[in-house]
Amino acid sequence: MTEYHIERIFENDQFRRKDLEELVKKAGIQLDKNLDYTCGAVDEEGKLVATGSLYQNTLRCLAVLPEYQGEGLLNLIVTHLIETETSRGNFHLFVYTKPKAAKFFKQLGFYEIAANSQLVFLENERTGFSDYLTELAASSPAPAPKTAGIVMNANPFTLGHQYLVQQAAENNDLVHLFVVSEDSSFFAFKDRYQLIKEGVSQWSNVILHETGPYLISSATFPSYFQPDDDSVIQSEAGTDAQIFGQIAEKLGITKRYVGTEPFSHVTQLYNQELRQVLEPKVELVEVPRLSQDGQAVSASKVRELLKADKLAEAEKLLPKATCDFLQTAAGQAVIEKLKQSDSVVHY
User: Fold this and answer.
1) Looking at the structure, do residues 188 and 305 belong to the same domain, yes or no?
2) Which of 8, 113, 282, 319 is within CB 3.0–4.6 Å of 278 for a Cys-Cys bond?
């Protein structure tokens, strides 16, 4: 019986990286852009026959050479990855996988959160998502006749974000505003949350929530088993919509507010997928983006201006709380980080 051992594959290991790229290609996937740990199963002759990776607390890029499938290698890889996460102090784990592989992960103790024809999103805590829903309900007032929802990253919080909230607040009795919790933006979660809190304080019917690990962000969504960019966007939006639909049912949300951006193919595609999945139970309300001088106010535009050292121009697009933050040491550190970054435009 062939013996296999697990070894870590480092970014600068050109020999193993070549083998890794060939392996995932044969498995019909590609290496994800967001990875912080990769390992492989190697046979007695030193051949790389299976692989798996991590990004934060998610398992990714799992693959076994076709001729080696059925030998328990995927189980070996996943067990190693879970042990690695445990050593990092990560116990609540997630995996995105193809529907045909979902049964395998369920046998390993993962539980389905959302699923569609392209992917399944699972976690290793049986009541993780249901506990999150229970906590949301416990921390929220009773549903009102007109209850709306917004999901917002706000990197940073702009006048455009504020305008979207205003539209929802003035046309509904209650608004649940979910702030993306993942710390993968230029502006840290704690700062984004505080800026949103200050920026919407004039509307007493707006309730803030953390998304936790459930409502996803583009920075951490896996793209390795999608054939093209449009498929990635549709899968992301579809999963987001399914999860939001469960949240909406728990909180009595009947409308989700989003901003439009006529010249963004990504935004249009994302909103189309949201509408298709959410309606008719949850109406998707697309609010035309706030514009200044004929240009949509966006966080991407603000980041571009800050990178270009055009603080005064950026401040024209920001509420007072965000302007004040940029004058602090933490704000100055973010600006410096933007200046040092190759790209500050995210979809």
Assistant:
1) yes
2) 282
